[in-house]
Amino acid sequence: MDIERINENTVKFYISYIDIEDRGFDREEIWYNRERSEELFWEMMDEVHQEEDFTIEGPLWIQVQALDKGLEVLVTRAQVSKDGQRFELPIPDDKLKDLPVDERIEELLDHHFQIKSEEDEDAQVSLDFTLKFNQFEDLISLSHRMSSFGLHDIKNQLISYENKYYLYVEFSEEEFTEEEIDNILSIILEYGDESRLTIHRLQEYGKIIIDEDVFSTIVTYF
């Protein structure tokens, strides 16, 4: 995959269809399978982050151009306006007109970055995260620390994939406030790192080690 840093907020990368297939994705499914297209996108963004230190913060604006032999993707971090009421793209309007869009892929990805409409604000929402641990000992230390909180309302699962351990956690906003979620995640991130691998890919290609109650289960045996 070829990566070009345009500026502080924008990065462009090209990936061939051969590279896409080498990563385990079918060319057709990235157009029509939402979950698989998201998996490919976040896998590419992981690589972009590692090579260009491009941190994902806030909403992203994505342009995708389908070429004969691959995809060209332009990703820009949107910036919040000074009044905090809208998002602004750090790209001149004349430049935007010159950027072609493939609406099929954009449609598959944009739901991750859209601002919630007012009619969705009262809907029940669950927030989920996937975290990577290089050593099982880190999970043991984390579990003993977390057990003191008595957290029984967190849906979680532990999966082994490519010699790493992945902890999937899901919070219900009915049970946890945003501050509580931030505090819990800050503790977990002292022991592991956030991963962009989706739970669907981990469940399909990895091995489920603990299906639920990860922290209490680890404490019981370790």
Output the keywords.
alpha+beta, Alpha-Beta Plaits, 2 domains, four-stranded antiparallel beta sheet, globular
Uncertain segments of ≥5 residues (pLDDT<50)? Answer: 81-123
User: Taking strands numbered 1, 2, ... along the chain, how are they ordered across the largest sheet?
Assistant: 10-7-9-8-11
Please state the average pLDDT score: 76
Radius of gyration: 19 Å
Q: What general form does the structure show?
A: globular
- Pairing-aware structural class of the strands and helices? alpha+beta
Distance between the termini: 42 Å
- Number of alpha- plus pi-helical segments: 9
- Strands, count: 11
Largest sheet: number of strands, sense, barrel closure: 5 strands, antiparallel
Question: How many domain units?
Answer: 2
Proportion of beta-strand residues: 25-35%
**What is the helix fraction of residues, given as a range?**
25-40%
Order of SSEs, N→C? EEHHHEEEEHHEHEEHEHEH
Structural commentary:
With 222 residues, the protein is of the alpha+beta class. It is 36% helix and 27% strand. It is built from 9 helices and 11 strands. The chain has helices at 17-22, 29-32, 34-52, 93-97, 103-109, 136-147, 178-188, 199-205, 214-221, and strands at residues 2-5, 10-16, 60-66, 70-77, 79-80, 87-88, 126-133, 155-161, 164-172, 193-194, 207-210. Helix 6 (136-147) packs across helix 9 (214-221). It is globular. Mean pLDDT is 76; it is low at 81-123.
Record the SSE blueprint.
Layout: E1 2-5, E2 10-16, H1 17-22, H2 29-32, H3 34-52, E3 60-66, E4 70-77, E5 79-80, E6 87-88, H4 93-97, H5 103-109, E7 126-133, H6 136-147, E8 155-161, E9 164-172, H7 178-188, E10 193-194, H8 199-205, E11 207-210, H9 214-221
Antiparallel strand pairs: 1-2, 2-4, 3-4, 5-6, 7-9, 7-10, 8-9, 8-11
Helix pairs in contact: 6-9
